[in-house]
Each structure stands twice: as C-alpha cells, then as structure tokens.
Amino acid sequence: MTKFTNPGLMKTNRRNVLRGSMLAGAAAMAGATAIARTRAPKINAINETSTKLYKAAAEQTADSTAKPADLSGYTRVKQELVAPPFAPVHEQVATGGPKIIEITMETTERLMVVDEDTGASVWALTYNGSVPGPLIICHEGDMVELTLRNPVDSMMEHNIDFHASTGALGGGGLTHVYPGEETVLRWKATKPGCFTYHCAPGGAMIPYHVTHGMNGAVMVLPRDGLKDKDGNQLRYDKIAYIGEQDYYLPVDENGDYKTYEVAGDDYSDSIEAMRTLIPTHSVFNGAVGALTGENALTAKVGETVMMIHNQANRDSRPHLIGGHGNFVWESSFTDAPLQDMETWFVRGGCAVAAMYTFEQPGVYAYVNHNLIEGVLLGATAHFVVEGTWDNALMEQVVAPRSFET
Ligand SMILES: [Cu+2]
Q1: 397 exposed, middle or buried (CB, 10 Å; 0-12, 13-18, 19+)?
Q2: pTM, two decimal places
Q3: How far are the Cα atoms of 234, 246, 288 from residue 346, in angstroms, in the given order?
Q4: Catalytic hit among 48, 343, 357, 359
Q5: Average pLDDT for residues 28-50, to the nearest whole number?
Q6: Residue ranges of domains in the chain
C-alpha cells in the first residue's frame, strides 16, 4: 500500500512509513532553517547511525543459535492493564512460583489537549491511549510477555525499550512494528525496582516519540514484598501512578500553539522546539490539571499510598507539600529505602517509588519542586485526603488578625 505522508512532497510505501530518515528529509526540505544550525549534527546522519544500530541488534538475534528458554515451572497469567493513575490488580507478596505475565499494548496516536486555557494540544504517541502508558507490575523472576500492536490507521512505526529488561536495546531492536503489525516480546524481570519503558524507533524519532508521551513504567516487586532497612515488611493500600511529561509544543509567530492535521505533521517544528531543551509544559499524566480538581487523587487518613513517579526524559524532584516520603526507593528495591524524605530525586530516564501514610486530612499538592515547573509548566497533582484533623500535629493557635502598632 502506498501512502502520501506529506502530500506532494514524498511518496513512500508501508515499510517506510515515517521512518526517521524519511521524515528528517522532509523536514529538511520544508524547514531547513529550523534544523541546519551551526555545528548541530545533521539529523538524517543521526538517524542513519541509529537505524543501523537497531538493525544490528535485530539481525544479531535473528542469526542467533541460542537455545530456547526453559519455561517449565512458569504459570501463565494475564494482566489487564489500566489507565493511569491506577495500577493493575496485583499481589504485593508473590504467591506460588514464577509467572509469565501476558500483557497487550496498542501504539495509539491521538490528539490530546494539553492545556485547555491556552488551547495547547499534541498528537500524542501512546501506549494504550494514555500519557504515561499503563503501569505494568510483576515480581522479580517473572517474565513479562508483551503483545505490541500498531493499529492499521497509525502514521508511524513504534517499538518499546524496557529499562527493566536485558538485551537487544531493552527489546527495542526486536519490537519495531509498522501500522497493521504486531509483535510479541518476552523478557525476564531480574532486577527489582521501578523502571521506565519508552518508544525508541531510531535517531531523532527517539526523543520525538518520548516527548510526545510514549513512555511509562514497570514495577518489579521483590517476591517477598517490600521491606524497610531493618527487614520489616512494608505494604501499601493504593498506588498513585504519576508520569511527568515534558512537552515542547511549537508556537506560531504570534506565540499561539500550532495545531496539526495528523500525527507526525509537527515533526520539523517539534525538533526545533526540542533543541531549545526548554519545555513549554511539564505536566503530570498528559495534561495540565489531569490530577487536580475533579481528577484529584484521593486517600484517607491512615492510608498508605505508593506514589510511582516516571520521567523518561528529564530529571525531576517530587515533593508532597504537607507530607513526606516515608520510604523512598530512588535506586532499586534491592537497596534499603531512604526514609522521611522531604523531596526526592527522579533521574531522567527512570521511575521512583515513594510511600507515605497520610496523617492529616486536607488537600496536599504533589509537585515537581522546581516550582517554576510545578506551578507555571503544570507539574502539580492533588491528593484530597479525608479524615479527622490532629491538633497535636498542627494547630492554628491564632487566626490571622491585625496587630497593634
Ligand atoms: Cu513510538
């Protein structure tokens, strides 16, 4: 099937649909000034290198005479993935032997409003239609078996790189799917912790897809559950899964956010905006206000919430205003958690788990404590917590009043 991705500009066939090199060529023709900067590496050259890298990984495996994996002793289960901020049904302490966890994700491209007030929107590239993609949960020693499906009406090629996995570019080299294709990848979870996954089709398409929402998190729990530094069991009552997304949305000469007909049409403008390294937005769960107001997270006094924060591209520093990170796993679940943290650190390209038991009712803001990003760029969520106020912890002794001068 032949389709015109840029009418009048370039013709391609299905196997070449919006491959990075083709789009970069189109971008160079359409907006050479946007991309050809002094000393800036040529994007099509980067693409070529990266494409070869991915091919090499795929071919290496295809030529391999490796013996089949021994799947005896594993039980197959299906995990129904759910949209953020929720988590799939799971056990905190594994029962039974190791499992092969079957999941399915679709690489859906959809127009999303990022900020209703300004009209900012993005042709989001997603796993299962959400930004971030769904949270996947397994235990150390389990296998994750993903069916990755690219809908027929997609404009682009997609794949997936699991930071929790080992080999073949995190699976990126084995999972390239064009519109109308599906692939199945199985990998073993050998490292306990929270990990990012993201699309990485090659070249400039890697940051383009990641900054268009194509990322999410996997939580690999220890088989015997989470522990504090003394080995005491830790359990949570609920999970709040928060994906922080930096967007670089193009604006026109009047400063208004540009709109585009189909996914991929913003490629050349987006590359230019991304090169500034200054995001126009840094939001939680895809859009300004996705976790505030009517969409706020909820909890009760005495409940323990596990906050999982994913940032696939940039560093972040979450802070729960009015609360703490009682236990924070910035690295892996193998390490003892940090305790009683005020603000913790999410290295760009990773996911971090922080556990807190609410002690007071009210509205708590969970922010990126670069407060410019938290307040001006959108990285704020709210927890609305019900319960009884504890004056022993805090009391307004005197309400604000005038004082005598
Ligand atoms: Cu993608």
Answers
A1: exposed
A2: 0.87
A3: 21, 14, 20
A4: 343
A5: 43
A6: 2-60, 73-228, 240-386
Characterize 258-285 residue by residue with b for buried, 16 or more Cβ atoms within 10 angstroms of its Cβ, and e for exposed.
eebeebbbbbbbbbbbbbeeebbbbbbb
- 23 contact partners, CB below 8 Å, separation of at least 6: 5, 205, 264, 267
| 322-374 per-position pLDDT tens digit | 999 999 999 999 999 999 999 999 999 999 999 999 999 999 999 999 999 99
Supply 16's token pair.
């070449």
Residue 53: its pLDDT value, please?
52
- Domains 73-228 and 240-386 fall in the same CATH topology: yes
Instruction: Calculate the CA 405 to chain-centre distance.
Output: 55
Q: pLDDT tens-digit profile of 200-210?
A: 999 999 999 99
Catalytic residue of the set 22, 126, 181, 198? 198
Given the residues 109, 142, 161, 330, select the one marked as catalytic.
Answer: 161
Whether residue 163 lies in the annotated active site: yes
Active-site residue flag, 109: no
Has 10 been annotated as catalytic? no
Per CATH, the number for 240-386 is 2.60.40.420
Instruction: Please give the structure tokens belonging to residue 66.
Output: 């490796």
Per the CB < 8 A criterion, the answer to whether 43 and 203 are in contact is: yes
**Neighbouring residues of 243: CB distance < 8 A, sequence distance ≥ 6:** 84, 131, 132, 133, 215, 216, 217, 284, 285, 286, 309, 310, 311
d(CA 247, CA 212): 7
**Residue 194 a catalytic site member:** no
Establish whether 212 is a catalytic residue. no
The model's confidence at residue 199, banded by pLDDT at 50, 70 and 90, is very high
What is the dotted CATH code of the domain comprising 73-228? 2.60.40.420
Sign of CA dihedral 312, 317, 321, 325: positive
Q: Catalytic annotation on 281?
A: no
**Rounded distance from Cα 404 to ligand 1 centre (Å):** 64
